[in-house]
Amino acid sequence: MGNKQSCCSFGGSKPRRPEDAYRTSTTPQFANHRQDDVRVTLTHNNLSTPSLSAVPHISDREILPEENEADPSIHPSATTLFSSKSQSEIAKNYKKRRISQYEPRNYQTEHIHNNALRKCSSCSTIFIDDSTVSQPNLKNTIKAVAYAVYFHIRNRESNRTLEIFDEKAHPLSKELVPEDYSTRDPEHKHIYRFIRNLFSAAQLTAECAIVTLVYLERLLHYAEINIMPANWRRIVLGAILLSSKVWDDQAVWNVDYCQILKDIAVEDINDLERKNDLERKFLEMIDFNINVPASVYAKYYFDLRVLADANDLSFPLEPLNKERAIKLEAMSTEETLAKLQKPSLFRSNSLDGMTSNPRQSIVVIS
Description:
Blueprint: E1 7-10, E2 23-24, E3 38-41, H1 58-61, H2 81-85, H3 87-100, H4 105-110, E4 127-128, H5 138-154, E5 160-161, H6 188-202, H7 206-223, H8 232-247, H9 254-260, H10 267-270, H11 278-285, H12 294-310, E6 318-319, H13 322-327, H14 334-341, H15 351-354
Antiparallel strand pairs: 1-3, 2-5, 4-6
């Protein structure tokens, strides 16, 4: 441009995938990533600044679903990772539920406080909750996401992780990390409290919780690591950081999370010159792919509902009526909504108004 001559040659190939950078929890070390060098040849007329390391174009980062059918966070027909991890537990819970239906009546009444009565729909009455794909129930969605993380940790196949996510190397508080931090699996209530505190303090929505789980499984698939007791807090925190900034309709700063997580420094989350930059490393691990298709979002929503139902997470069920059907967008078309909102009484014309020669009133003027 501007009749200036320049010659730029980019050396190196596409950045390597981070699958060879994992380590076991017993041998902490930093992940070594090869940086591609850039060779820039400048002429006397070219005074531009040399560009940084070769970064692929944004169109090259977006992976089409057909190119990666095994990734559940991209392909809508691929089975979610947490569903496969919790399949045995779901089948066992359903089996217990079927057996309890044939138990004696006195045994059921004794254990009625453990399993509340389930409302079932019939031909005349339909029971439905207020949770939809567009507006999920916040509390139950967070509980279901906590169950998904719990089954990921409990049914993990190995202990591969990255140093950036190790809580021993980068603690989230000044409290001493227990010696058995890498072997003791957390309970579901501990995971739920951690996620709930972040969402309530940052005022995040239920949609953000679903996207958090999508980013979490995308990290596990791309980096080929496992979520385990030593890294689950930092992995969940990185997924929440990313989803809140990308998908939530409000400005969320890293300093807000430092106020939520006591005794944590801002530099531990967002200092570009340090190697423990959690957010930047998370983006690098997922290859800067933050796109979540609508079909993938809906798949994760319904799989979370199945997981919640299998673990007896009670949704507030109420009978479906016309007002609730309109509220829940059961009537999808605008024409149907317009017909339902019209008044039921219609004005009709009389026979006098339908004749071609309308009847005229006779007035006598005296």
